[in-house]
Amino acid sequence: MATDNELLSDIYRASRVGAETLDNLISKTKNSDIQEELKREKKVYRDFQDKTFKEIRSRNEYPKPVKKAQIKMSKMGIEMNTMFDKSQSHIADIVIQGNNMGIIGMTKSINSNKHADKNVNSLANELVGIQKENIEHLLKYL
Fold this sequence. Notes:
The protein is mainly α. Helix content is about 75%, strand content about 0%. The N and C termini lie far apart (about 45 Å).
């Protein structure tokens, strides 16, 4: 069903962008307590990306690719945001904002694909739960 594939692709892209963004931020957190938290979150996103990819492939589909411009814009945003402030608090704030944007984007995607398969919808809601949990973990660094 098209709505299933659309939602699965959105889930895949969101988890991939999350992992790549964290990868860029980890390099900015040398000798910082928050680095381990970012590595944990990145692993969770990569595992979720793999899980989603397998689900997409089990349906004989391929995920829609992440736009290179989106990744490049994210990387540039991180460079600008951390140019003068690489403090744990600032990094936590950036990641919390990213998770909030992810929650909003995934919620819109869920609402736009109301007829998606129950399992696909559950996967999307699981990603939202992961993002909410990430925020909770980061609050101590503010």
